[in-house]
Amino acid sequence: MFPPPMLPMHGNRFNTQERVLTLTQARQAFEAEKHTMARAFLAELDRVVTDGKLTAITRSSGGIEVAWRPTLKSVAGRAIWYRDTLRTFDTTTKPAKLIPVHMRKAAIELALRIIDNEDKLLNVMAHEFCHLANMLISNVYDKAHGKSFKEWEQGSLQCLRTRIFTSQHTITMRSIGSISGLAQRAIATIEGIQRESILLMNLAKNAEAN
């Protein structure tokens, strides 16, 4: 997890050069870990929200793909799925017969140029995951943000809140000694509230936009 970096302070003023360096390091750390982070959160969402149903549905096609797309510019993410049919030999019969095997493939596409921090990534992953669950489990295709979608959304929001709590706890533990205890606890609390507010507002905006 990569919480917002604690900025170095000199007296009551921020050191601009150190601030830029810290933000750059945070961005580099995110870039190095973002795909692993996305895959881990997807697995968590499927385990907690759908009890592994999406993994089961897409297992024959290799599971849900997470792909970063530089061509996505107007939206931060997109959920897609399609049916595919392969032909294979059934060796249980003699002679072996050529039979069709139906598979369902699914992917979450992420905008490479838009998603530049963990908050955006988790928000978009949760939203697009709800779309996949709505289509592949609930079999709802004509109401993208209807009642069924909102039911899946509630479970995803709970996963987001859990991640936010973990990040807030990490901020507090990592920063002990860098700033006085009372000031540090206040900053961690404020940042945790801000992160949750931003995530929930972004999720609502995405729902309206899509």
UniProtKB/TrEMBL annotation:
CC annotations in GO: nucleus
Superkingdom of source: Eukaryota
Gene Ontology terms: biological process: response to stress
Alphabetized InterPro entries for the sequence: SprT-like_domain
Domain SprT-like: 39-154
Stretches assigned to coiled coil: none
Record-linked Pfam families: SprT-like
Protein name: SprT-like domain-containing protein
Source organism: Gomphillus americanus
Source organism phylogeny: Eukaryota, Fungi, Dikarya, Ascomycota, Pezizomycotina
